[in-house]
Design goal:
Elements lengths: L2 H22 L4 H6 L1 H18 L4 H4 L7 H13 L6 H28 L1
Length: 116
């Protein structure tokens, strides 16, 4: 896959991560539960991240083995197809615990892709 295409995919992931971070700054789980637009915006951002990660080649994914790529790729399907059963607490935990390490990993992958 062309380096330029990978850079665009990684940039979309970073943009979604930054958007979620900005939207949730200073918020609590209760804020998240009570704000329909916030909740759906965050879920959509996670869907974008999930789908975009499916297009990162395995050799680049291997640069961040600490990231649960399979779960990231799968959460988008869960949000799209099982939305009626989606737990706000689980989504909020993803936001508070998983997105920051993912951003660091994506930045590392982006740097590596530029060196190719």
């Amino acid at each position: 896959m062309a380096v330029r295409r990978i850079e665009l995919i990684l940039a979309k992931i970073i943009a979604a991560l930054d958007g979620i971070s900005a939207a949730t700054a200073g918020k609590t789980l209760d804020d998240f539960r009570d704000d329909w637009l916030l909740r759906h915006g965050v879920e959509r951002g996670i869907e974008i991240i999930s789908e975009a990660t499916r297009h990162i080649p395995d050799d680049l994914i291997a640069l961040a083995p600490e990231i649960p790529w399979k779960q990231i790729r799968g959460i988008g399907d869960l949000l799209r197809h099982e939305y009626h059963e989606t737990s706000d607490a689980i989504v909020w935990t993803v936001v508070t615990d998983s997105l920051s390490p993912l951003r660091l990993a994506v930045e590392r992958i982006l740097e590596a892709s530029r060196r190719k």
